[in-house]
Amino acid sequence: MTDLIKLLPDHVASQIAAGEVIQRPASVVKELLDNAIDARSTEIVLFIKDAGKSLIQIIDNGSGMNGTDARMCWERHATSKIAKTEDIFKINTMGFRGEALASIASVALVDMKTRKEGEELGTYIQVEGSAVKKQEPIAHPVGTNILVKNLFFNIPARRNFLKSNPVEWKHIVEEVNRAALTNPGIAIKLFHNDDLQLDYPIEDQKQRVLSIFYDRKEIDLIGLDEQTSIIHVKGFIAKPEFAKRLRGEQYFFVNNRFFKDNYLNHAVNNAFEGTISKEQFPLYVIQIDIDPSQIDINIHPTKTEVKFEDERNVYQILRAVVRKALGGYIQNPDGGDFDDNRFIHLQLNPPSASEAMPFVSSGSTVSRPDWGSFKETYQQQRNDSTQNWEKLFQTNPNKTAERMETLLPANEEVSDTRVFFQLNNQFIVTPIKSGLMLVNQQAAHERILYEKYLIALSQSPIASQQLLFPKVITLAPGDELILEEILPEMGALGFTINAFGKNTFVINGLPTELHLGNEQELLTEILETYKRNKQGDLSKHKNVAKTMAKKAAIQAGTKLKTEEMNRLVDELFACTDPQFSPDGRPCVSKLTLQDISKMF
Ligand code: ADP
Ligand code: MG
Predict the structure, then answer these.
(1) How far is 406 from 400, CA to CA, in rounded Å?
(2) Three-class SS string for 425-467?
(3) Which atom of ligand 1 is nearest to the CA of 35?
(4) Residue 79 CA to ligand 1 centre (angstroms)
(5) What is the pLDDT of residue 82?
(6) Which of 30, 352, 362, 566 is deepest in the core (most CB within 10 A)?
(7) Which are the contacts of 529, defined by CB distance < 8 A and separation ≥ 6?
(8) 71 C-beta closer than 6 A to ligand 1
(9) Residue 509: which of 550, 468, 461 has the closest Cα?
(10) CA torsion sign, 17 to 21 to 25 to 28?
(11) d(Cα 111, Cα 105) in Å, to the nearest integer?
(12) Ligand with the closest atom to the CA of 81
């Protein structure tokens, strides 16, 4: 038998890697801008044609490259920015992976002219499909001029996937503005089809923010500048009256790198609480300076995610700084605590994780736990999880065949005998007329619970099983705000949770499907997942339902009884959308007789 495994040719590997870094013209713009910034340019000019689909050109007056570097930079993992593993933990440049130029070269036609300071001649180089086609010395000013033509010329599927010009153009403008916001010392011009669209001179930080938010005036902004022992927070927020109905003008930077973070965004929104309505989003440009070893930017090649070692304290500080800034602006706040000295105290002495709990919002109801509300159901719940299963799967089995017919092509039906067996304690397998149907038990159960929870949230709350011994839990600072945010939803899903002062809560009841165990861990996990899901555009209900479904669903590896499989499948096909789990994994798949015949 011949061997099947082969190493991919370099250009194919590059194209695959490029898919991660270069998704659209704006990704090229971002990478080239990053490089020009890293090269300490003070002037950058961009020429774009056809929303970047046919041409992206960037000219900088930065360090430039010598002949060898001009050739090397197109290789994968070629970088001047890090040399050894330790360097990854103290990155102060925008790039470091040495991937961008190689990726661009694998999916576009590239020309570059560059000259390094001190060199007499510059270099002209032409790269096509990752291969250097031409290299010759030329006269050129110090700096670099890169031309990227016909993006994705060799991957039609990707090219077709690009959005309309206005959409792609908008992404480009967004990238240029992100770079411009933290680099007021660089003059930037952006042309589209020969028209000058953006023109930022070298200016100070505030002026640059105003140039970008051109509909704002100096008086509309409130400056931030607080040095704490772990971070330096700088930047601007717009006064509450300029909050918008659309998210958008919200920018976080860490060490000059743009990032998105819903958790920290929550800190800022929260600081604005009481000054703007819930449907509005405050405008902010917040720059955090931190020791690079305290963050991990190595999460994703496109690098808009950053992981802070000390996320919770950053949250606290950010909220305090913004609130303090607002406090200076608002004389007579309704909420009362804007001028509170605690904020000043906090930013000077960031709390250690254990002592930090200065922000219980004054509006939160702190009720003492109801120690008398014990129920006998506790023991029963603990001992009998199969009963829960049965409750879970109350649906009409006759409907299943009907649903499957609409779902699976052709005239499918569960065979009359309804044989189910479990494969690897992971999949439920059942014969259907045209072959075998496979159900992913975990994905399917997530779908079932998700729909059930959505109903619970919007119409009929799930009853709570009261605990014999209420559990007191303490959350990490910052998390109490997240929990408070979803407390009503948690209630509808069967949690009875009461605030017990500071960041302590008492769990008096749990939904029936959840196994008892470590409630503290359970809640922390729910909050973590909820925070993560907030990255997307999920509504709060959907997010909570999805989070809980994930938590409560039977896992792969759980052995199921025939009856349980039966009901799971019935429940699944009673769902509105049985095909996919809430996060898009398939719940059902089919092995047709044809597939099976082919195997022989
Ligand atoms: P990275 O930025 O991660 O190092 P790139 O592929 O983006 O990787 O760039 C590779 C190398 O090429 C950089 O490390 C840098 O030395 C050089 N380079 C790229 N663009 C420029 C530029 N505009 N000016 C000077 N040097 C550049
Ligand atoms: Mg780079």
Answers:
(1) 10
(2) CCEEEEEECCEEEEEEHHHHHHHHHHHHHHHHHHCCCCCEEEE
(3) 20
(4) 6
(5) 77
(6) 30
(7) 547, 550, 551
(8) no
(9) 468
(10) negative
(11) 10
(12) 1
In angstroms, rounded to a whole number, what is the distance separating the alpha carbons of residues 104 and 207? Answer: 33
d(CA 570, CA 428): 12
Can you give the length of the chain in residues? 600
Pick the residue whose CA is nearest to atom 2 on ligand 1.
95
Residue 191 has pLDDT above 80, yes or no: yes
Closest listed residue to residue 465, CA positions, set 376, 370, 368, 367? 376
Question: Is the alpha carbon torsion for 445, 450, 451, 453 positive or negative?
Answer: positive
Rounded Cα–Cα distance for residues 484 and 474 (Å): 13
Residue 64 CA, ligand 1 centroid: distance in Å: 9
Nearest-CA neighbor of 475 among 460, 452, 491, 497?
497
> 292: CA distance to ligand 1 center in Å?
20
For tokens 């590239």, what's the residue? 110
> Tokens 């931030």 correspond to what residue?
224
**pLDDT at 330 (0 to 100):** 59
Write down the H helix ranges in 194-261: 205-212
- Residue 517 gets the label, from left (phi > 0), alpha (psi -120 to 50) or beta, of left
CA dist 315 and 69 (Å) reads 42
Distance between the two ends of the chain, CA-based, in angstroms?
17
Q: Which two tokens stand for residue 568?
A: 């799971």
Q: Which ligand is nearest to the CA of 17?
A: 1
Q: Which ligand 1 atom is nearest residue 93's CA?
A: 2
Question: Exposed e or buried b for every residue in 138-169, given b needs 16+ CB within 10 A?
Answer: eebebbbbbbbbebbebbeebeeebeeeeebb
> Are the beta carbons of 448 and 472 closer than 8 angstroms?
no
- Token pair for residue 583? 């996060």
Has residue 356 got a pLDDT over 60? no
> In testing the pocket of ligand 1, which one of 79, 94, 303 has its CB within 8 Å of the most ligand atoms?
79
